[in-house]
Design brief:
The protein is mostly helical. The protein has ten helices and no strands. The longest helix has 35 residues. The radius of gyration is 19 Å and the shape is globular. The mean pLDDT is 83.
């Protein structure tokens, strides 16, 4: 056996471990809680609140509740568990997938691992009492980058990438491609129908929010205005300020809440 095959075999055994599976499934529960809080903050923005309406705001809101710090600790552990699991998926691939689709899924798994680690980092900052506002940090980073040579072009490309991710999420949701990662054979007809509807609504709503955020980042680069590069928080507040915006933002908030409930279904039926 070659060294590569040995490493791959070791990684495969680690990925199939029961403790990691339980940790990942618990992580999906906390990921769902974070999105439900995110949806609640977005709904408040629709009615005029100035609260930070993104996932970092949701984690800070969670920390402020009774037993909140304990729940944030649980969410950090869960996010790390999800990140480790997705890192293994990126390294060895998902079982049963071959060809180009397998390569694409491994790349996506790598991005997911980074995303979950990012949420864990936000949770750790909240526990340390630091300002975990992603909007402020994104604005500062954009300002620094745009001051450099070619920085505005780079910020613009980042915006295009974020918008592309948003569009991809909408397509992923509307086409129901997320179902391939679920053990649908374990669901009865009602559960499968409900899970599909939650996934379609959830991914579509997140996609709309990311697409708007990406557009704002591009606008920040074009107009040399870092204030616009504040991520999801700025995107949702921009939406709220449009004609019929509060109603549209309310629908987006409901979609994000649907994604939160979908995460609970993932904790039970996701192929891990």
């Amino acid at each position: 056996m070659s060294a590569t095959e040995h490493v791959r075999g070791t990684a495969s055994r680690a990925a199939d471990s029961k403790p990691l599976e339980l940790l990942a499934r618990g992580g999906f529960v906390m990921y769902g809680v974070i999105h439900l809080l995110f949806a609640w903050l977005a709904l408040q923005v629709a009615f005029g609140s100035s609260a930070e309406s993104d996932q970092s705001g949701a984690i800070q809101h969670l920390a402020a509740q009774p037993f909140g710090r304990f729940l944030v600790i649980v969410s950090v552990v869960g996010m790390i568990g999800l990140a480790v699991w997705q890192a293994f998926e990126a390294a060895i691939g998902e079982s049963g997938m071959r060809g180009r689709s397998a390569v694409a899924e491994r790349v996506v798994s790598g991005f997911r691992a980074v995303l979950y680690l990012y949420f864990a980092w936000i949770g750790i900052k909240v526990l340390q009492g630091a300002n975990a506002s992603t909007g402020d940090s994104q604005q500062q980073n954009a300002s620094t980058m745009m001051d450099g040579s070619g920085g505005r072009l780079l910020v613009g490309l980042i915006g295009v990438a974020v918008a592309a991710i948003g569009i991809g999420l909408v397509v992923y949701g509307v086409t129901g491609k997320f179902e391939k990662h679920l053990n649908t054979q374990q669901m009865n007809t009602t559960v499968r129908r409900t899970t599909r509807r939650l996934g379609v609504a959830g991914y579509s709503a997140k996609g709309v929010a990311y697409t708007i955020a990406g557009g704002l980042i591009v606008a920040a680069a074009v107009t040399y205005d870092p204030e616009k590069a504040r991520g999801l928080d700025a995107a949702l507040k921009l939406l709220a300020g449009q004609p019929y915006g509060p109603w549209l933002l309310g629908l987006v908030a409901l979609g994000i809440a649907a994604y939160g409930v979908y995460c609970f279904s993932q904790s039970r039926y996701r192929k891990v």
